[in-house]
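help with this.
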Amino acid sequence: MNPAQKPLVLIVEDETDLVTLLKYNLEKESFRTAVANDGEEALLLANEQPPNIVLLDWMLPLMSGLEVCRQMRRNPKTRDTPIIMLTARGEEGDRVRGLNSGADDYITKPFSPTELVARMRAVLRRATPGITEETLSFHDVTMDLAAHRVRRNGRDVHLGPTEFRLLRHFMQHAGRVFSREQLLDIVWGHDVYVEPRTVDVHIRRLRKALNEETEVDLIRTVRSAGYSLDANSM
């Protein structure tokens, strides 16, 4: 696998020995790693290069892991990024607080690196079903998830971030019809208020970028139901 296509893990941890252990084990398991030693650095790095998954320590200098998690969930770039909290706090109330702040999973120190990697892969599969695939394909369209590139019939298709997320979701669930409300939840997120008609605007942009005059329109509009990716849409 090309190194650029390996999932990127942001390790947010201030214990040097643990960072070294995590980097060694994750890179051995074909992950790329980036490291932040405090919460402010974590938010900066995640905004500059959104990772595929975050390992987030609860107790950090400058800003707690809980607050980092909350701020990542408010940032459109990292809103959907899987987050696993790492902490010595094992009480049920602490686990609930961690999950309520937006974490996807919670693992208590000390932990087995093998278990951690297994939990990471499970969270990645749930959050982004295509993450274990280098490319998605449908009809004459290919999507390179790592390079963030889409091609149709050999030509590059230039998409904005929202159109890219829409197409990725459609390609992962080809043939299935999704309502505007479902697409809003999946692509924009549960906590962001967006008018349902906004979906129509981005669908039009996706169609314009994806379809040239002689090509089949792959986006099917289902009246009173929503949209789907369908090669027989015309």
Observations:
- The first helix runs from residue 16 to 28.
- The longest strand covers residues 8-12.
- Residues 135-229 form a domain with the Arc Repressor Mutant, subunit A fold (CATH 1.10.10.10).
- The chain has two domains: 3-127, 135-229.
